[in-house]
Amino acid sequence: MSVFADTIYRQKYAQEGENWPDTARRVAEAVMGPYLPELVEEMTQLITDRKFVPGGRYLYAAGKPFHQVQNCLLMKVGDSREEWADLMRRVTSGLMTGAGVGVVYSDLRENGAPVKGMGGTSTGPLALMEMVNEAGRHIMQGGSRRSAIWAGLHWWHPDIFEFIGMKNWSDAVRNLKEKDFNFPARMDGTNISVILDDAFFEAFHNPDHLLHEHAQLVYWQTVTAMLTTAEPGFSVDVGENAGEHLRNACTEITSRDDNDICNLGSITLPRISGPEEMARVVELATAFLLCGTLYSLTPYAEVDVTRTKNRRLGLGLMGVAEWLAMRSKPYGPDPELAELLTIYATSTEIAHRYADQLGVSRPIKTRAMAPTGTLAIIAETTSSLEPVFATAYKRRYLKGEDWHYQYVVEPIAARLAEAGIDPDTIDTAYSLAEDPERRIAFQAWVQRFVDHGISSTLNLPAFEKQSFSIPAFGNMLIKHLPDLRGVTCYPDGSRGGQPLTAVPYAEANGWEGYEYEEVGSGQACASGVCGV
């Protein structure tokens, strides 16, 4: 591992005295040993070689007394005071065990609606969203990891317009966020999405539809917010996925059922030698995640009931952009990649076969592409479907109560540079930012092979620097939305204290591994060696 990858691994996942091969063995033996012991050695080697990397909760919790290795919870909340209280119970229990939470609030009556039993009026769904956000602010997972939270509201809800604008912070708040990332702002720990269903697209495209004007207003106000303040995004559940609108915190796992749970691990595509090895890795990784549904504890009893029914797996991919770049292929659809994705899609049949062998329910769905932030760093590849963010960047992270950063040279950029290829020729999120349709179209193409969702953030220039208009972007996006499960945008600098900031390759090259502590608007070198 590089110095930076090793630093993140030890900071986040290593138990005392462990090296990466030790972690691989601990995880494989704990998760697969009781159920498929004949596969433990092969899985240990796959993890050691970083051809398959289980989700972070597996790396952190496998083998511990409290071994909750499945992660984010998918919830909805009903319209009564008892169900409000019950949601806070479930959220608190989930967050305190390391799970993220995603909640759909569409069943709640609107702000100002009468409450007959108690008298008075309802405060509406946004108030409960903020209560959950504040719970996440004060529950530090593992002592250093911010709680991950998502909130969704359907396009037809009466409070949807206030929801769309709820993260449009004032300039004063933005400035305070820039100075201190921990400064509290409304919903600052929660990602938000407007939920679109089949009825939305019918209303949007039909001028005679009773809700046509409403659908148009919701869409264009959301698009404007996406291009300016970054949120909300869109969550799309249409056709065969209709009704599957519950999401985990990063939105790649979807469900119809309350108290569902995600279950993640990713294949590192650039480390796979070809179709034959891909087939074996997909089989082993699918079997591993299925064992995880038997091994993992849950934060409260209702989760186990839903998990036993659905047994969702979230087998993902990372390094797609690196795989393309190492073959001098552009970021986009590719026949050779399609062959590997077709093999990847066999996870459904594999999961059913192993479920029958183990005598458990067959998983409803098996594939999801999670963002794989720290896992991609450990695997030294690009995250999920994302293009190379930048050839070099600063990455901010919380260590104890203080924010630090390190320079990161993108591994693919370093490898191409060593091969004599100019890193500046690589497709990056920054170079693709002026061509958003290329990003969106590629995500829609890959979605054909993924039965859950793809968590992917469309990086864009700052609003004032965007070369495309709001109408042009919106007209492009509406063409592709029915083929997506969701989309999120991030205009550069739209959130104070953003964790990744691109820097020139030459600035970071040679200074990887030095750790800097942020002090006010300046910096202090926490490693004791100030390289810049």
Care to describe what's here?
A hairpin with a 2-residue loop joins strand 12 and strand 13 (402-409). The protein is globular. The protein is 40% helix and 15% strand. Helix 9 (198-205) crosses helix 10 and helix 19 runs parallel beside helix 20 (470-480). The two termini are 24 Å apart. The protein has 21 helices and 18 strands. It is α/β, with parallel strands linked by helices and 532 residues long. It has 2 domains: 3-66 and 258-380 and 448-460, no CATH class; 73-249, no CATH class.
Quick structural gist:
This protein is α/β, with parallel strands linked by helices and 532 residues long.
Q: Show unreliable segments.
A: 520-532
Largest sheet: 8 strands, mixed
Specify the overall morphology.
globular
Mean pLDDT: 90
N-to-C span: 24 Å
Helix fraction?
40-55%
Strand content: 15-25%
Number of helices: 21
Instruction: From the alpha carbons, calculate the radius of gyration and give it in angstroms.
Output: 22 Å
Number of folding domains? Answer: 2
Helices, strands, pairings?
Elements: H1 3-12, H2 20-32, H3 40-48, E1 52-54, H4 56-61, E2 73-76, H5 81-96, E3 101-104, H6 124-138, E4 149-154, H7 160-164, H8 171-179, E5 190-196, H9 198-205, H10 212-228, E6 233-236, E7 246-247, E8 254-255, E9 260-261, E10 264-268, H11 275-295, H12 301-310, E11 314-318, H13 320-326, H14 335-344, H15 347-358, H16 373-379, E12 392-399, E13 402-409, H17 411-418, H18 429-432, H19 436-447, E14 457-460, H20 470-480, E15 486-491, E16 500-502, H21 505-508, E17 515-519, E18 522-525
Parallel strand pairs: 2-3, 3-4, 4-5, 5-6, 10-11, 14-15
Antiparallel strand pairs: 1-10, 2-9, 6-15, 7-8, 12-13, 12-16, 13-17, 17-18
